[in-house]
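Example record for the data management plan.
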Amino acid sequence: MKQALVAHPDDTVGTALHELAAGDAVSAVVKGAGSRQISAGEPIPRFHKIALRDIKKGEKVLKYGEAIGTASRDIGAGFHVHVQNLESDRGRGDRR
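Corresponding structural encoding:
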């Protein structure tokens, strides 16, 4: 079984430790809190984020126990979380 690492028990995303194909069984290992099983809903590159549960449009996405952005559309459990469905809440810097 392939694995995803979850840094905090409150996280809504994990990091895929392997390249995932749609339908792959994934053990989401929560640091210090066991694991849960999910199924990849689409191909996900290694080291990219996978949704651990359904995330609604407008909901904060949590990684490391902190909000890393806001879902720009609904994201199903097991799907890739990246620029196509996540808006960063962090500054991108002033390039003047």
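Summary line stored alongside the record: The chain has a mean pLDDT of 92.
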